[in-house]
Amino acid sequence: MTGAEVRKLNTDVLKSNLKEARIELFNLRMKASTEKVEDNSTFGKSRKQVARLLTEVNARRHAEAAKKA
What is the mean pLDDT of residues 30-52? Predict the structure, then answer.
């Protein structure tokens, strides 16, 4: 999912996707500690996805705070 696609998401869907991405990253880490991972690039991809989603969540939170101030 690209940054433009992330910006188009509804806030509830965005938070849901963030939760799923974090769970996926956690499961990937657990899999790496217990068995061999086929593709090591999935770690970076998963971390970047979490970062994209967090960036948008924080941007929306700051924009909401600016409106209230």
Answer: 94
**Cβ 16 vs Cβ 57: under 8 Å:** no
Q: CA 55, CA 9: separation in Å to the nearest integer?
A: 13
Task: Give the Cα separation of 65 and 24 in Å (integer).
Answer: 30
Half-sphere exposure of 10 (CA within 13 A, CB side): 3
Distance (Å) of CA 14 to CA 53, 56, 69: 7, 8, 24
Do 51 and 59 contact (CB within 8 A), yes or no?
Answer: no
- Domain of 13, in residue numbers: 3-68
Q: Residues 11-21: what's their mean pLDDT?
A: 97
